[in-house]
């Protein structure tokens, strides 16, 4: 397999307010934009031709990826004037993905799945679709994939369903025929859409491939910071973007600073995310928050406006102790 489609058109609602500033794939994770982690993994797996679909804040993605040559890849972009979804996106991309099996990767998947192993399962089982899965780590949070004893998918269940299920990690091998009958340019979904129909009509269409590799989920700002801290390890410099400046007598602990952030003197930032270009005033104290510059967006009830900054609790549901400045 030499072609992959990375789904990068989404708006990243759950990751707001970070995604008001950059599209989710362009968000820096331990010094490297999310999408470049994904591309580096694919390059390491020997995949050279990659297509990205774009819709929301596309220039933030193209700015960090370019043509992919520095990764030894050929990257092409497909523009979606309206979001086509997890099945409509692949349908539109078929003309540039070649005629054989190809990989689809969700743009918010951080994993090191072995693509060759996935392909082997796909070919041996002669599946139309093969989903990389793991035991469902949290059925209350994640929907599930229900299979028979032989790994063929029977149905998909929503989060909270008590049926024993697997968790789909956002990496799959597919046959073009699965998408060929869809109308071009019309939104369509895989799970809850064509895959659900396929599984109910054909008992041996969608197979699962169990992974043991790492899978990191970045759904919310809190997840994002945890994953960034994990990947940075003791290399704190990986959490500080280009052009960051930190004033005298200032403490910055377990905090991600994006590009061109200036933190004033006598500040304390603990467990925060500060987005591009923000100026944190002298003497500020922040804990467990995201700090964004003022954009042309609506202020949410759980956010505080401080000067020209918007301060959002890292978890919207624990809005207690934002700031004392």
UniProtKB/TrEMBL annotation:
State the InterPro entries in the record.
Mannose-1P_guanyltransferase (IPR050486), NTP_transferase_dom (IPR005835), Nucleotide-diphossugar_trans (IPR029044)
The record's listing under Pfam families reads:
NTP_transferase
Q: Which residue range or ranges hold the Nucleotidyl transferase domain?
A: 4-231
What CDD domains does its record include?
NTP_transferase
Stretches assigned to coiled coil: none
Cite the SUPFAM superfamilies for this sequence. Answer: Nucleotide-diphospho-sugar transferases (SSF53448)
- Bilayer-crossing regions: none
PANTHER family cross-referenced by the UniProt entry = SUGAR-1-PHOSPHATE GUANYL TRANSFERASE (PTHR22572)
* Descriptive protein name: Nucleotidyl transferase domain-containing protein
> Which species is this UniProt entry from?
marine metagenome
């Amino acid at each position: 397999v030499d072609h992959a489609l990375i789904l990068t058109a989404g708006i990243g609602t759950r990751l707001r307010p970070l995604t008001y500033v950059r599209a989710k794939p362009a968000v820096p994770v331990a010094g490297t934009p999310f999408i470049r982690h994904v591309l580096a993994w694919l390059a390491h797996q020997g995949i050279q031709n990659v297509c990205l679909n774009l819709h929301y804040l596309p220039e933030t993605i193209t700015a960090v990826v370019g043509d992919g040559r520095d990764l030894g890849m050929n990257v092409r972009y497909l523009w979606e004037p309206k979001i086509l979804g997890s099945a409509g996106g692949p349908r539109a991309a078929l003309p540039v993905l070649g005629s054989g099996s190809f990989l689809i990767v969700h743009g918010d998947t951080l994993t090191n799945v072995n693509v060759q192993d996935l392909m082997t399962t796909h070919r041996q089982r002669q599946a139309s679709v093969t989903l990389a899965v793991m035991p469902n780590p949290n059925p209350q949070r994640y929907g599930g994939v229900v299979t028979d004893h032989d790994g063929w998918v029977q149905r998909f269940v929503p989060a909270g369903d008590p049926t024993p299920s697997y968790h789909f990690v956002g990496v799959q091998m597919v046959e073009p025929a699965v998408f060929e009958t869809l109308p071009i340019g019309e939104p369509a979904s895989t799970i809850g859409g064509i895959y659900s129909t396929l599984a109910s009509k054909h008992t041996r269409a969608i197979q699962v491939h169990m992974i043991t590799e790492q899978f990191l989920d970045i759904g919310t700002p809190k997840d994002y910071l945890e994953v960034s801290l994990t990947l940075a390890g003791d290399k704190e410099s990986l959490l500080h973007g280009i052009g960051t400046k930190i004033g005298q007598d200032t403490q910055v602990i377990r905090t991600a600073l994006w590009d061109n952030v200036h933190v004033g003197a006598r500040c304390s930032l603990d467990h925060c995310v500060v987005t591009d270009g923000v100026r944190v005033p002298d003497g500020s104290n922040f804990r467990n928050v995201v700090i964004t510059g003022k954009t042309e967006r609506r202020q949410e009830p759980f956010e505080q406006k401080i000067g020209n900054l918007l301060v959002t609790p890292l978890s919207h549901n624990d809005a207690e102790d934002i700031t004392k400045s």
